[in-house]
Amino acid sequence: MALKERPINADLPPAQAGERLATRTGAPAGAAPAVAAEPRRRRRPVPAALKAIAGLFLLAVVFIVAAILGGRGGDGGETAQAPAPVLEPSGGETEPGAQTPEELGYPTFATANTTRVGGADPASTAAGVAMAIYPSTKPSQQPKAVTLVDAGDWRGAIAASVLMAAPVGAPLLVAESSGLPEPTAQALEALDPAGARATGGTQAFAIGVPAPSGLEAKTIGKRGAAAAAAIASLRDQLLDGPPAHIVIVPAAEPDFAMPAAAWAARSGDPVLFANANRLPNPTAAVLRRHPQTRVYVLGPSSAISSSVVREVAKLAKHVRRVSGEDPVSNAIALARYSDEGFGWNVNDPGHGFVVASSEQPLDAAAAAPLSASGTWGPLLLTDDADTLPSALRGYLLDVKPGYSTDPTRAFYNHVWVIGDQSAIDVNEQAEIDGLAELAKIGGEP
């Protein structure tokens, strides 16, 4: 693992006690101790000022989506404007105009250094992320394909994140066996994927769900570890070759598996699954096809045992474990890690980050496109809606940007916050903003 000799914020005042606890968890053997989660407090009401800001964003969203769907006529002769849809949560009906942008999922409440994609459910969040990455106001801003994943299969969704990697670039949308939730249907209409050579002419990849009508679709009718193996094979076809690395994650502990979604989207490395004490046959079959590919096991021995790692080593020449003892430090371990092109190696300022709740595994897949575009950053986890974990606080402080003379020539951090207030409270978002803020180093304040 590579570390910068002296980060730009090396001269900042020392952190308070416990703030730097377990921030250097990149080495496989060195992991931060688990941080006990405090009891979850009741969801706070949105402050009045935030409601006012949300109202302005809601108006902006209406105009944006109206422009997307109604302004495509251009010179092509289609001049009639379609009604502007509103991305709504998939659960239940609400009165028109009663939703805030946070509930819509579209990027909403922003601070100087953070932007929230606050969907009320994974379908809304995924739709909001997809529209943020692909505004779709013109053909060049539209994806060539989308990936529809099963709302009830977080494993298949995390594995499908690899289809966001270049050159495929297919953002994830959430579907159900009964059909498309309203936010997904509206986003799919706005994104309007056309297919391309890079997607094999496919407009929609349907993983464990029925293919949408009217689109050229590729369907994988499997779930869990079997779906992940099938997606790995599809990835080999689309990218025309074997992967540089393979990531194996726990099949029974989603909070340890979540960070792999962001890496798969960024790198094109497939994600496979292992049980705590057994290697599933579909996973073993993929490893046998790629005996020369480097394999990385994400998660501690409590989630994937050493006996399973030894089993993997019989099928692959190079196997390494990347881990933290709890989900928060495990995500930080992958963010810090670097080995032969694998791992984010984010140990200094000037990066993007994505923060999600460890209790929302589907959000990892929904947010994965944010790690493959824009500010390209690792997924970090919080295990409490109200309180930032000390390990995460310490890591963000360690990579906090700073400047000595000219702030316009400094490096900057930006953080995407995923989920509504029940997942990550606005006060926690405010603390994240402060940790990402550019700081003056030395001299007069």
Molecular structure report:
It is a single chain. The protein has 14 helices and 14 strands. It is of the alpha/beta class and 445 residues long. It has a domain at 95-120 and 346-404 and 413-445.
Summarize the topology:
Blueprint: H1 48-70, H2 101-104, E1 114-117, H3 122-133, E2 146-150, H4 154-160, E3 172-175, H5 182-191, E4 204-207, E5 217-220, H6 224-239, E6 245-250, H7 254-257, H8 259-267, E7 271-274, H9 281-289, E8 294-298, H10 306-313, E9 319-322, H11 327-336, E10 352-357, H12 361-367, E11 379-382, H13 390-398, E12 402-403, E13 414-418, H14 426-436, E14 439-440
Parallel strand pairs: 1-13, 2-3, 2-4, 4-5, 6-7, 6-8, 8-9, 10-11, 10-13, 12-14
Helix pairs in contact: 3-5, 3-12, 4-6, 4-12, 6-9
How does the helix and strand content classify structurally? alpha/beta
What's the N-to-C terminus distance? 35 Å
Kindly estimate the percentage of residues that lie in beta strands according to DSSP. 5-15%
Q: Low-confidence parts lasting 5 or more residues at pLDDT below 50?
A: 1-106
Order of strands, main sheet, comes to 1-13-10-11
List keywords for this structure.
445 residues, alpha/beta, four-stranded parallel beta sheet, 14 helices, disordered N terminus
